[in-house]
Each structure stands twice: as structure tokens, then as C-alpha cells.
Amino acid sequence: MRDETVARNYAETLFELAQRHEGVEVYQAGIEAVARLIDENPDVRTFFETPRISGAEKKAVIRRAFGEALPKHLVNFLQITIDKRRQRLLRDIARAYHALVDEHMNRVHVEVTLARELPEDAIEELKAVLGRMLGREAIPHVRIKPQILGGVVVRAGDTIYDGSLRRRLDGMRRRLLHADLPSAAEA
Question: Rounded to two decimals, what is the model's pTM?
Fold first, then answer.
């Protein structure tokens, strides 16, 4: 939990920097590129996390590698994470920063589960409906799960909207099992 809080604090600081300088989306692209580099390349991850390489050497490499590609204040931010020995949290900082940008841009990521693939225009319509329903721009992350049989299951944060055919059939089955049906003698 402590690392999550620290990452959130660093992300908030970076967000404030971004608002004052090149913009939140430019910084988002930059911090995500660094985080992706750490995730996808074990040598880069080892470089950032090893205590065998001094902070000064790491900062010099950061300056050479990212000095022209990233905004100056973002490069300085990366160097400060090294000074404070928080570079192992860069991926968490990037995730927290992304959440701040989404909140700022009034966007919400929505997990959408479907029984089968839908055409792109149907996905766009679903996106529009979800946006109206949630009061924010919905960014759907679609996954296919044939077990739901049909319909759609939507998860937005902690809220789940289950419009699946499987749930409806299970509900119908429960109602039928608990219904007071006339016995054969009464009929």
C-alpha cells in the first residue's frame, strides 16, 4: 500500500508539471514509453533497479537516452526518481499518472464482455451508450467470453451491469424452482 501511495504522489507531481509545461498528454506518452521500456526489456529494468550502477551514472544515461525524445521537465523528473531511489516505482507512477489523465479528461475505462465479436460500428454505438449512461467518455476494453451465451456484461470501476443471457436464464431457472406450481392432483 505504501508504494501505491508514493507512486500516486509522484504521479500527482508529474501531472502538475505537465499542466504547467508541455501538456498532460505529452507527458503521458513519455512516462508510458519509459514504463513500457522497463516492462519489455529486462536489461533496462535491471539498469534502473540495480544498486551496482551509481545514481550519477544512471542519470547521465537517462539524460543521453531521453534528453531529446522527452520534455526537459520529464527527464528531470526521471532523474529525481533516481535521486530519491524511487525508480523501481516508475511503472506504478505511469499507471497512477494515466488514471489522473483519464480523470482530468473525463474518461472511464470499461471492461465489456461479449459472447461473440461485434462489428466496429456496433462497438462504437455501445461506446456512445456507455458514455451517456456513465456521464463520461467510455473507453471500452472488449473481451469475448462465449460462456455468457449472449448479451453484454459491463464493468465500470466497482459497478457491474450484467445483461448476459446466462444471468437471465439462471434467474428464470431460480424463479421456476421456487414457484408454487399446481400439483398434478390439483390440475
Answer: 0.73
